[in-house]
Design brief:
Layout: E1 37-39, E2 78-80, E3 82-83, E4 100-105, E5 111-117, H1 136-142, E6 145-148, H2 153-161, E7 166-168, E8 178-179, E9 190-191, H3 194-204, H4 226-233, E10 272-273, E11 276-282, E12 285-292, E13 297-302, E14 305-306, E15 317-318, E16 320-326, E17 328-330, E18 339-341, E19 345-353, E20 356-364, E21 372-375, E22 388-394, E23 398-401
Parallel strand pairs: 2-6, 4-22, 6-7, 16-22
Antiparallel strand pairs: 1-23, 2-5, 3-5, 4-5, 8-9, 10-20, 11-12, 11-23, 12-13, 13-14, 13-15, 16-19, 17-18, 19-20, 20-21
């Protein structure tokens, strides 16, 4: 896919315009074989080379989809805990409407998803499942209203500790959910809708505005990469929101993945090809992405097949993919094998956009503060307008970018 890459050291201009662009949703490409960048452990090595590169100009990518609604400053999003276990949960509903989706490991080598919604109205969202405590750190940094059915003991504690406005299918808010099957033994069939959630939020008198800054900013044009982030960032404040440090999900770690090694044939400050992405969370679960150059976006793959949306039957797509390495471990004494994930500290990963991959650094000072994302050279990451999937992966995950 043609794109504009201008990588210059410390180029700053104070221009920020607001033209929105987005990505065409398209159908079905399967994930191809893995080669190229083969990640055998947790994180990319630190980049040491200069980021100066010659200008490379090509025609701008296609931007036919103008339906994407960017996250709205000053408005609280709604975050929903979505099941992703096995086949009964599939296909899920409402993920195609989310501006941001987090995917994180849970017990038994599976994952759960947490979409965030601003100003959109999916008619089916689900299947909704129980809360896990480390997902709350991304609820808190976005100041979201949180939707779930049940909770783990640590999640129950933390929802009360942080006084998170929540809608709980086995407690306050149970009336907003319905089951799509008549099987009383099926715990993976509960759905809700934005209309029902909005009505309950009004009834509960939950605050719908926020003083927290958005975690992400978006490019005002179709240019992505470190140089354009630097060029657009001079007028954008990415200072962390002040928050009182309370109990972290685990011991805070600096450079959570610094001890690991990785096989990468190219400088992580530079763009590398990213036509296919494969992420192995465990021997039971993998996901990935296939770049569709005609739409300038990625088709999401789940367990080797295109990941479909329940209501439309179409594949889910992403304009931006963030792969974020975080440490995890099974909670001591937890008979169900629930996990702890270290969200606080700093680490590395990859930012994937427009058929290219870049080295990424992340940092989060405490549970309520925003995660800050930069390229390896320190420039802030500004997103291409369109859906963003944040893949929070264990440090031992095998990630292949080709």
């Amino acid at each position: 896919m043609n794109l504009i890459r201008i990588i210059m050291n410390k180029l700053y201009i104070s221009v920020y315009c607001t033209a929105a662009v987005a990505i065409v949703l398209t159908a079905g490409l399967l994930l191809s074989g893995c080669k190229g960048q083969t990640m055998t452990s947790s994180s990319p090595s630190s980049a040491s080379a200069s980021t100066q590169q010659s200008q490379q100009e090509t025609s701008a990518p296609q931007t036919a989809n103008n339906s994407f609604i960017e996250p709205i400053a000053g408005v609280r999003p709604i975050a929903v805990m979505i099941d992703n276990e096995g086949t009964k949960s599939y296909p899920q509903g409402g993920l195609d409407k989310a501006q941001i989706v987090y995917e994180i490991l849970v017990e038994n080598g599976e994952t759960r998803l947490m979409p965030l919604y601003w100003g959109v109205d999916p008619s089916m969202i689900g299947p909704v499942r129980s809360s896990r405590h480390y997902f709350l750190d991304y609820v808190l940094e976005n100041d979201a209203i949180y939707v779930h059915i049940g909770w783990s003991p640590m999640a129950e504690r933390d929802i009360k500790l942080f006084k998170i406005n929540n809608i709980n299918g086995v407690g306050y808010g149970g009336e907003v959910f319905w089951d799509i099957t008549t099987d009383k033994n099926n715990w993976q069939d509960s759905y809700t809708s934005m209309d029902k959630l909005s009505a309950f939020i009004k009834k509960a008198k939950y605050r719908t505005d926020t003083t927290k800054d958005l975690v992400f900013k978006y490019l005002p044009d179709t240019q992505s990469g470190p140089a354009n982030a630097a060029a657009q960032s001079s007028s954008i404040d990415q200072t962390p929101t002040a928050a009182t440090m309370t109990e972290a999900t685990s011991a805070t770690t600096t450079e959570a993945t610094s001890a690991a090694t990785i096989e990468v044939s190219q400088n992580m400050n530079a763009a590398s090809d990213a036509q296919t992405v494969n992420i192995v969370y465990s021997k039971w679960y993998s996901c990935g992405y296939q770049f569709d150059s005609s739409a300038n976006s990625y088709i999401r793959i789940r367990k080797g097949k295109p990941d479909l949306e329940r209501t439309s039957g179409k594949p889910l797509v992403a304009s931006n993919i963030i792969i974020q390495y975080e440490q995890n471990a099974t909670l001591k004494g937890d008979v169900k094998g629930r996990q702890n994930v270290v969200t606080v500290g700093s680490g590395k990963g990859f930012y994937i956009v427009e058929g290219k991959s870049y080295g990424l650094k992340w940092s989060k000072k405490d549970r309520t503060s925003p995660t800050l994302y930069t390229y390896d050279n320190g420039d802030p990451i500004l997103l291409l307008p369109g859906p963003t999937w944040i893949q929070i992966v264990p440090v031992y995950s095998k990630v292949t970018i080709d």
